[in-house]
Write a structure and sequence with these properties.
Two copies of one chain form a homodimer. Chain A is of the alpha/beta class. Chain A has three domains: about 45 residues, lambda repressor-like DNA-binding domains (434 Repressor (Amino-terminal Domain)); about 140 residues, Response regulator (Rossmann fold), CATH 3.40.50; about 150 residues, Response regulator (Rossmann fold). Chain A is about 35% helix and about 15% strand. Chain A is built from eleven helices and twelve strands. The termini of chain A are far apart. At the A-B interface, helix 4, helix 5 and strand 2 of A face helix 4, helix 5 and strand 2 of B. Chain A binds a DNA duplex (16 and 16 nucleotides) through helix 2 and helix 4.
Amino acid sequence: MARRRTTLKDVAREAGVTISTVSRVLNNKTLTVPVTDSTKERVFEAARTLHYMPNRLARGLAAATTQVAGMSFPMTSPLNRADHRDVTFLNLGMLISGVQNVFQASGYELHIFNRLEHDLNPDAPPRRMSLDFIDGLIYVEPNPKYPYFEEVVKAGLPCVLLGENPMEHPVHSVCADDFEEMRQLVSALIRKGHRRIGYLLALLNEPPMDVLKRMEGYCAAHRDAEIDVDYELIRREHVADVPLRDSVTALLSREPSITALLIGRTEVAVDVLGMVQEAGIRVPEDLEIVVVGDDRFFSATQPSLSAMRFDYLRIGAEAAHLLLNAVRGEVDEATSISVPWGFMERESCRLKEFLRTPS
Amino acid sequence: MARRRTTLKDVAREAGVTISTVSRVLNNKTLTVPVTDSTKERVFEAARTLHYMPNRLARGLAAATTQVAGMSFPMTSPLNRADHRDVTFLNLGMLISGVQNVFQASGYELHIFNRLEHDLNPDAPPRRMSLDFIDGLIYVEPNPKYPYFEEVVKAGLPCVLLGENPMEHPVHSVCADDFEEMRQLVSALIRKGHRRIGYLLALLNEPPMDVLKRMEGYCAAHRDAEIDVDYELIRREHVADVPLRDSVTALLSREPSITALLIGRTEVAVDVLGMVQEAGIRVPEDLEIVVVGDDRFFSATQPSLSAMRFDYLRIGAEAAHLLLNAVRGEVDEATSISVPWGFMERESCRLKEFLRTPS
DNA sequence: CTGAAAGCGCTTACAG
DNA sequence: CTGAAAGCGCTTACAG
């Protein structure tokens, strides 16, 4: 039943050589340290018949590398509510695929960690993952205040942050250049002829950096075209005491009327579309709509909603490459990579020909 | 920068004792092997000032246990489409929470593995996770034909399967008793007075076991109440050449009319509700609807949809407990645990008072 | 080309 | 109560 697992020693005995030799041929060190073809054969043969699988713990301990990389993000909400993190989940598959494709090609294995929320019990010591099992970590952290990541970085583990870096500490990171991307988007709308572009901001309690950057991009595009920004067109959605409907109504009643609308949060896009149409405004004839952030339901609305999509597959791949380089020590300073948005052209706004193709 | 990590040896030197002693007090072996309070203090003190963290690789190698358990399921689709696995994703958070709550209480760490699809390249050797890093594995596998799990079980690693066991090999498993649960549900409908209960089956290419069991449960409930089953009321949804609409139409036009409808697949529930209402049938006045499987959108439909919910939080917890017992060798034979469904009562069907409360 | 040996950082009987 | 020592299963200079 629980028969002892075959070790290097077993293989060595079977092949009539030393474990040093077995280790060498099984690890392809045979390039730097030459080995006779015949012994190589014997070793492979022995390993095969004995179903040898190296013990990764021992290997990791001796070689100081596990060939495993980690990826951490919150998969569960503090209240165990299934829908809490759905926004994250929706694109998680793409992100993981992007990462794993790269890792697999490099012989790396991916372990995923659920970063626990401690909101329920802030006094509890933060659960930590054992960093010994991994050579590096990709860290996805929507909450910039979460303290654990900084510890990980300081511990000297190669890390790549997905998103804006909220820390003092320099660290590799991959994210979109929200300023530039929004500027491009708004510029394209202006090139198409729009002069009155409403912008429904996704401001919750505190404005996160990326939203501020987008807002600046919105303004920069106007400045580029020498159009004065009407700040009344930038409406904060979901302010404490202002319901969404009021924000939308205010935006729609502003004169001269807006001809284009940017919706900054995917979750409210369908609702907003409904409110617009209830107000007797035709989309896209009277008003073109672009959502900043894509959702699988946007192709099913009436009309379907055009959206800026974050290319999670590519983001994941870039992060994985960056991490692998960091693990190999091939990159010294903290680098940050910017992945452009993609435009999902649907019925609510045709814009492709006005967008500059990325260089 | 890359300063050497502090090891047991460092702590021992600092505390003026041997590494044996340090190991003992830090691992609370002090119950079986007594240690003076004063040396205990010195050791703790030294460990604290040196920020000692045990190397888990070394510990794992020496102790033959890593205090880490794994959980594996497909998070990515073969085509990297974000929406492919959304059904899984939707409840993943609950499942993970259930597992992790239990693990955490036992000092176990959870590593999550994305089981890769090999549909894209079936010739590629299956990517395998290194079993050396984990003491046990919870395996979630929607595809009963996937061969890898059997290897894992044979390798002697303690395993718990989430779902039906498709293998010959006996293995611990946690799932719902689909036969009994469906029987209870239909019995409740019958107790409420329904005699004509439509059942839209979720049959894709091949009928999976759980759907067959549910169908038997449906029939058993009728038998219990001495009602003849009208097999025309059991419609296969989404058969190759029969569109959903036709199945629904056929179901609704069957005489005498159905007064209750079971929808077997969450994905089509909203569509079916729409078709029913287009046909001029009022829900729930003319027709009560229950979906087998819950979805976060069901509370937003008009009327909101009642549903049987799989209790993923509890399923996860049961699986974790079972795995922990298996790791400890406290459970010998393959046990399978059945977790009951829960009823989410909403507007489309009031049924709570007719359901037997679980004993 | 191959082997003997030290070492990775721990745990755990076994002595004392 | 504490220590010396063997061992977990590997890797990797260092000899030969």
